[in-house]
Amino acid sequence: MSDLTSQVLAALITAPDELKQQALDVLKGIPVSAPSTKPEPFLTLAELGRQLNISACSLARWKIPRYPLGGQAKYIASEVVAYLKSVEFNHVSKELKRQRAIKSADQARRTSGNEEQDE
């Protein structure tokens, strides 16, 4: 097997399905549409939340990438999606979960302490 074929097969194994389909279309000679040159719109947090089906509160807590425009934060959906798939966000997510577990444990201790005082 040639080196090029080996490289193509290795890339094919790890590629997401969308890229595999695009590569197959190219190999079949199907015309590929040019990428859109139209810039993505800036979205408010509420608009972004609706588009991604994620609560605006969660997005704000996750400290997603934003642009301050006209005194208000605006977001670009593709950048936020890329961030949510990133290693950086994975670390942020784990830290937020750890903090939430600590807070829940503290609340449980306070609640059980209040119940003991009532008795």
H/E topology pattern? HHHHEEHH
Q: Helical amount among residues, as a percent range?
A: 55-70%
Report the sheet-strand fraction.
5-15%
Strand order in the sheet with the most strands: 1-2
Structural class: mainly alpha
> What is the terminal separation in angstroms?
79 Å
The count of strands amounts to: 2
**What's the shape?**
flat
DSSP summary: helix tally: 6
Average pLDDT, rounded to a whole number, is: 86
Flag low-confidence runs: none
Give the C-alpha Rg.
23 Å
Q: Describe the biggest sheet?
A: 2 strands, antiparallel
Attribute tags:
119 residues; mainly alpha; two-stranded antiparallel ribbon; 2 strands; 5% strand
Summarize the structure.
With 119 residues, this protein is mainly alpha-helical. It has helices at 3-14, 17-27, 45-52, 56-61, 77-84, 87-118, and strands at residues 67-69, 72-74. It contains six helices and two strands.
Report what the structure shows.
The protein has helices spanning 3-14, 17-27, 45-52, 56-61, 77-84, 87-118; strands at 67-69, 72-74. The chain is mostly helical. It has a domain at 1-33. The longest helix has 32 residues, at 87-118. The protein is flat and about 70 Å long. It starts with a helix and ends with a helix. The model has no long low-confidence stretch (mean pLDDT 86).
List the helices and strands and how they pair.
Elements lengths: L2 H12 L2 H11 L17 H8 L3 H6 L5 E3 L2 E3 L2 H8 L2 H32 L1
Antiparallel strand pairs: 1-2
